[in-house]
């Protein structure tokens, strides 16, 4: 994109705001460092919580960010929860989808925004990080995001947690509520309000903006960070809640529940000799076609090799 086009896009975005319907702003952003050519650093504030956010298109910066996670969470790597989200530029007049342009990862009070569409290369450390069977990547529509990452960039997300299905399970008081599955179809904004009682600004103008530009606007950075941050906060909150009283079984995804429901209905049909008609369940989730587990980063490679000797 030409420099004049980039400036025009950024000027257009400058008029946007993440405030919600005239309410007081719940988020803001400040620049920490924009002097480096390989990455920019921001502080994103959400309800006064500060999130250190790194934006980069360089594989070496992604390496450093991942190493810092392994270092700082070395005693908590088993079942480490990471909020994951993606952004891509929508095409309004074409049925084809643009490739994933931005990948966001968030845990604790740090966030990485990786501009895949502008990157010099996708580092092996990121392949290994996403493919780590000890990590749980949480999000809304997470399997769809994982499918896009694999199809567009051959990045395999090994373990996922669908927040809609988890919320439906944890917050349902009866099996009937779980079967209805209203929260299974809820978006991130609705889940943030219903589960965390937090507002999440999601202006359409920023969602539909150009995510392939080499320098994201401050508003785009803030928007991208908040999506991954709220995904992380939802996962931590829901996973720490007790299982509902209507079941002693461990939590199930919407897909698991639907498969079980279909099996029960099939057995009932055989017993009663009915026509086989059954009601629809709200808890539906299309399984994704993913590669077999195992590091796509190359045989013999390990994230441990990234540590300084």
Which helices and strands, and how do they pair?
Layout: H1 3-14, E1 27-33, E2 39-46, E3 49-56, H2 59-72, E4 80-87, E5 102-107, E6 110-115, H3 124-130, E7 135-139, H4 142-153, E8 160-162, H5 163-171, H6 175-180, H7 188-196, H8 204-207, H9 218-239, H10 254-272
Parallel strand pairs: 3-6, 4-7, 7-8
Antiparallel strand pairs: 1-2, 2-3, 4-5, 5-6
What does this structure look like?
- By secondary structure, the protein is α/β, with parallel strands linked by helices.
- It has helices at residues 3-14, 59-72, 124-130, 142-153, 163-171, 175-180, 188-196, 204-207, 218-239, 254-272, and strands spanning 27-33, 39-46, 49-56, 80-87, 102-107, 110-115, 135-139, 160-162.
- It has a single domain (3-252), classed as Nucleotidyltransferase, domain 5 (2-Layer Sandwich).
- Helix 4 (142-153) links the parallel strand 7 and strand 8 (160-162).
- It is globular.
- One of its GO terms (molecular function) is 3'-5' exonuclease activity.
